[in-house]
C-alpha cells in the first residue's frame, strides 16, 4: 500500500493538515468542507469523544468536559506559571500527574496532555486519509519556534499515540518561509510575525539560492488572540453584571459564553467598525437569561493595544540577536489568525516600516510549508558529502564589533572547543574544567551572538531532495540556551540559544568535593543565570568516579541536539572513559510502557460521528 506524507500545523486554536496532490500542495478539508480543525476535544457522557468542529460547538454546553488550549501547556510542569494561570482560567479540571506533569481530569478519567493533542492529530490524520486514501502514517509537524525540548518531545509523543511517525518537528515560521519562498521565488531577509491564538513568535530568516537560514527567533508562548478575548470578556462581563446583577466572571459557564461571544465580535470587528451578538444562558443556575453585547472596533483596539504592543518587545529581542535593524528586512510575512486584525496589520507596518506580504493565507501558510517539507523528505534523503556549506556569516549585515572574548563566528566554532583553556570555577556537583569557555556563571558580558559559542553546527546535515523551488538546505536554530546546573544554583551554557541545529556542545567539569564518587548532571533550558528559573529538562547520574581530591576528576558533558530540537546528553569520566549508563528522561514525559497504555486506551475510545457542514 502507498503511504502518504502530510504536513500538520498543530495549532493552539486550530489545526490544519496539508499534502502534496499532483503538482500542488493543498490544505485538506474535513467532511464539512472546513480546512481549520478546531484543536478542541470533548468527552461525551456516553464515553465517546468529539474532536474539531463538533467539540467546538460542545464547548458552550459542556465546558468542563471540553478541553482546549492544550498547546499552551504541553511539556510544562505543574508548578509553572502557565499551568497555574490555565487552572485559574480554563473551565475543565486539571490534576498533577507523575513527574510534575499536568493532566486533564474529565468524567472520572485523567489524560496526559499529549493524549489530548493526540486526539487532534488523529482527527487531522483521518481528514487526510479521507482525502488521500488510507495509509497516512508520516508527518512533518510544526511547533512554535520558542518550544523547548520538552514541548517538542511531548508533541512527538502525541504523534505516536495518534499512530503517526514524525518525519520532522519543524518550526512554524520556518514552514511559513518555505511556503513563501516556493510560491514566489523570493529571496532576502524575512521577518515571520506569527500571532496566533495562544502564542506569539517572530523569526528572522534569510532565504536565497535554495538556502533557508534562520538568523534568530524569539517568542512568548503565552501571548495570543486568546488574551484579547479574555480582555474583551472581562469588559463585557462588567457591562452585563449591571444588567444581570450577577458576578458573571465567577461562573465558568457564563464566562465561557461571554468569552465565545467576545471571540466572535473580535473576528467581526476585523471587517467592520461595530458588532453585536446575543449571549444566552448567563447568570446563576435557575436564573439564566440572554443578553445582547456589542463593541466598537475603537473599543476593541483600546483593549487589544497593550497585548499587541507586547509582540514588539519580542521583535526587538529577535532583531538584537540577529544584530540588524528593522530596515534591513526585505519582507514581513504574517502568520496566525490574530494577524487578521486591522490593528495588528497597522502596527506591524508602522513597526517594520513596510507593508506585510498579503498574498498568503495566514491560517494555512504553515501547514502548506510543512507539507512541502514532508514531500521533500519523503522524496529521499542525501548524505552530507553532497551538501553545500551553510552561508557564511559574512553575508550578514556588518555586526557590531565583537567584544573581546565574545563567541566566535560560525566559521571558527569547529576549532574552538578543544582550544580554550579558561580557569576552573567552583560548582555544585562539578566544576568547569579545561574545555569551559567562561569563568562567570553565564557569559553575560558578551553580547548575544547569532551563533553559539561552544557549539559546532554539524556540517553533515541531511539534505532533503526538494521539489522544484523548495529550499535544499534548512538551517534552523535552537531558541533557548541549554545549560547544566553548577554550584550555588548557577548555570553553565553548553549550547547557546540560536545555535544552528543539528549541533553538539561539550563542556568539561570537575568534581566539587574530595572523594566525590558520583555526580548529578541537571540539564535545563532557558536564559536565566539561575538554574531554578529555567526549565528543568532532566537529570542524569554518573557513578563510579575515581576517588580523588576535589577538582581532580574531569567529567565531560556532551549535548547533542538533533534537527527536531530533541536533546541527547552524555556524561563521560574523562580519565576512565566511563560513560553514564542512565539515559536522560525528559521530566514529565511518559515512559514507553505508559506510552503503550495511552495508545491502547486511545485506540479503544470510540469517536462520536461528526456532523457535516
Ligand atoms: P491560530 O492559532 O493561528 O489558529 O489563530 C487563532 C486566533 O486567531 C484566535 O485568537 C482567533 O480568534 C484569531 N482570529 C481568527 N480569525 C480572526 C479574524 N478574522 N480577526 C481577528 N482574529 C481572528
Task: Give a structural overview.
- With 613 residues, the chain is of the alpha+beta class.
- 28% of the residues lie in helices and 28% in strands.
- Strands 1, 2, 3, 4, 11 and 12 form a 6-stranded mixed sheet that branches.
- Strand 8 and strand 9 form a beta hairpin.
- The longest helix is centred in the middle third of the chain and has 26 residues.
- The protein starts with a strand and ends in a 9-residue tail after the last helix.
- The site of adenosine monophosphate (AMP) has 18 residues, from helix 6 and helix 7.
Range of helix content = 25-40%
Number of strands: 31
* Overall structural domain count: 3
Give the DSSP E fraction (strand runs of 2 or more residues): 25-35%
Shape: globular
Low-confidence stretches: 380-472
Task: Enter the CATH topology name of the largest domain.
Answer: Nucleotidyltransferase, domain 5
Q: From the alpha carbons, calculate the radius of gyration and give it in angstroms.
A: 25 Å
The main sheet comes to: 6 strands, mixed
By CATH, the superfamily of the largest domain comes out as: ATPase, nucleotide binding domain
